[in-house]
Model the fold of this input.
Amino acid sequence: MSSRRRVAVVSWLLLAAGAAPAAVAADQGGDAAQGQVVDIVVHQGKRVSGPAVIKVQQGDEVTLHITSDAADEFHLHGYNLLMHLAPNRTATLHFAAKLAGRFTFELHKADVELGAVEVYPR
Amino acid sequence: MRRAGKAVLALTLAGWSGAASACVLGAVYNLPIPFALYASGAGGALVVSFAVVALVLRAAPASGAMRPVAPERRADSLAAVPAWLVETLRWASVFGLLLTIATGFFGSSNPLANFNMTFFWMIFLLGLTYLTAVLGDIYALISPWRTLCAWIERAVPGIFRGRLPYPRWLGYYPALALYAALIWGELFGQTRPATLSLLLIGYGGLNVLAAWLIGRNAWFQYGEFFSVFFGLVGRMAPIEYLQDGAAAGSWRMRLRKPFVGLLDLRAEHVSLLLFIIFMLSSTAFDGAHETVPWVGMFWKGLYPALSAHLVLPYVVWVSVYYLWQSVMLLLLPLCYLAVYLLLLWLAKTLTASALSLHDLALRFAFTLIPIAFVYNVTHYYGELSTQGIQILRMISDPFNLGWNLFGTAQWFTAPIVLDVGTVWHTQVALILAGHIVSVYLAHVEALKVFPNPRHAVLSQLPMLVLMVLLTTVGLWILSLPIDAGQLSAPV
Done:
């Protein structure tokens, strides 16, 4: 292999190595817009799937997908975000975690605390 | 028979159960303090403790008895508290009580929106506590219960002279029992505005009945627990109030150095020591009882062990969990007491003191109050800042009728979220400040108790361990991760 060819091969390899993370970033492009995505499933007023504590950094985008088997009202304290839940339909709540702190979320009708979003300062 | 027993137990506990929410009012958005801050705070407590020891050693004379430090009294600082001011504040205090009761019945049923919940739990119980630490025991002058009893006595002279002598052995236990009931109600009672009003009416009736039975003075000294609580906190303040013997109902005040009120007298009864210990332990419990390790003690420790032998519906286990929490609330002060007594026993052994452990325990009891106070402030000042401030909005519309009496009805409509960094640093700084004061007070008390300087310093080593322990535990609790959705996913 001539030195010119070696240079060309190495250049392509370097380009490929550089492009790989870019490709991953492009793959996550949709998620990056949504930020941290969390799915929570509620069955008979209990959280049966999804984390109890969602930890994010201040300024992150957060998307919560909540599916409940019964109609209810989802409430994220502190940010004061309310969302109606229809039975067996996934509802989505998207917000920017601008306030640092610990914010519980609950179901109003079932009167159940499902978990908390912990927003840590950067 | 066993099954029937289980069913009865299930029904009883399920009926008794509290719900998910533990705090009586509103949400506090505090994050656990980071480990680095916790570690630096605990380290700071150690450094401060050694600094105090070093200062004591340098200041101690080479030989001979050390002179006890007497609280400074300046006769020229005595001043009369204007009678019109006391009378006005008494009327305002009774009006505040009546408004609290009335709004509970006729205001919003939402605890967060009702004037009475915020006024009682935030302004009276927290705000007045912190004000008392600065201005002294003003509650003794303006207590609505005392005022009502005084008015009744004016109408029916002699009604509160007492029918039975107050049993000396009972000490402050009635106040302690009422205090424990209040904290239980705060944490697990799920108090609604109307319930609070009923409880306040009941408490008023209890005060009148007890004052009639054992005498007004005895009841307000030993039984009316707000008097005992604010009286202890007020000892830290730089202002002292004295009832004027010459003119009934008039008061004089004098300035003093901050915290010397804690050295003036010693706890006179074990029940008062327990009251102070409960001030410490109940706040620690409130801070710890929703954290991951604490909740895990039940759901990951007890629950698997018990449920292997006892098949009960989940709802009953939730009730058992709350019962366990209540039992722990009452057991925790005994753990604090055991540690306190153990370290005092060490001090006694090291110094070969002739004083009994009982005597020493009472003598050093008041030195714990600054730590108990800063526990309280660090734990609750967030609630006071976010929910307590809502009172400015509520006074414009106390009955939730759409009024705007003072033009403040639209204030603070958005949730208030405090800056996390400020909260963390304030908490650590306050805990350390309380630690310094308690270590210093214990040292001054030791100089009085142990006339030999070597003994005084030796006695301080176990006391230092105690103070560092209390401070570290306070910081540790603030750093613990908080559990979430505990009742939805116990395992």
